[in-house]
Amino acid sequence: MIERATLGGLEFEYDTERGNIRMAGNPAIFIWTESTLTGLISGLQRMVGTDRFRLALHGGGRDGVEGDWAYISQFPSFEAGFAALVEVAATFGWGRWELVSLDRKARRAVLRVHHHWETNIQKVLGVSWGASYLGGKFAGIFQRHFEVSQCWAEQVASVTSGDAYDEFVVTPSEASLEDRIEHMLATDDATRADLAVALERVRKEVDERAETERQLLEKLSLIAQQEEAIRALATPIIEVWEGVLSLPLIGAVDGRRAADTMGRLLEAIIQKKARHTIIDLTGVEFIDTATAEHLLRLVMAAELLGARCIITGIRPSIAQTMVSIGIDLSKLTTRASLRDGLVYCIDQARTGGR
């Protein structure tokens, strides 16, 4: 259900089902000035400080005049449009505005305001901040009227300071709102203290992250060392006789371990100038097809470096796997045990054979 009423020439619509109000066709709310609005404004002031609070309100008022200027522009002159806006503002509870003087040539306007909501809030709180939001609104309106890049509304009288009204002088300004904020940040002791605290907090966070990163790198380095030690223990390469290396394999031998073993063994063959390498499979119970192929490539690579490979300790299941993939065991040098393999290598070294 929609209920309608006209006040001050403006139509108010109340949607009872949704709980919404529209004034002159625009969404609006009613709010208690001396309780709800006062609590909202005072909370913001306590959070940011009075100086920043004033600048924030001035900027908010300046940036919120698009609708006001569009309304003024409907009339044949600025004075007529502003006078009409005065009536709208009074209807909406913004107090009574008065354009005291307007000098277009000098680009200077003087305005007075009676019973504005910012003043009422400050009376309740017992403070005197000035009507910064309304000042920003005047600055935004006359910035467009004077056709300049920026204006500033200087409050020269204030009800909360004992004057009969709030009065503003609006003129073009070389310093923008952003310039004023930057200047305040550079000169305000409280602001500098806030920045110092923030910077110190950032510095501590950076230091903590750097320390955490250092600890992680140390842990990663330790893990890498442990993995290297585990790989060395898993594939120990032992020089059991002059020119004879022994590589006992124990446990499961997957593709990754086989590839790692190949690299370590070939490096050891070069370093030790080995002529024989015994690959002992006594401790290996099972290998798959891929691992058997890796083992064959390991034998071939070692022999390309001049080291004859002797395979010892082949279990029946491993032999079956090698035969199933087409490896001719008769072409490999094999012995039943590591001892037999070592005896073979020693005999070969003594007789000068390979």
Automatic annotation (TrEMBL):
Family matches, as InterPro entries: Bact_StressResp_Reg, STAS_dom, STAS_dom_sf
Recorded superkingdom: Bacteria
STAS domain residues: 234-345
Name this polypeptide is given: STAS domain-containing protein
Source organism per UniProt: Nannocystis bainbridge
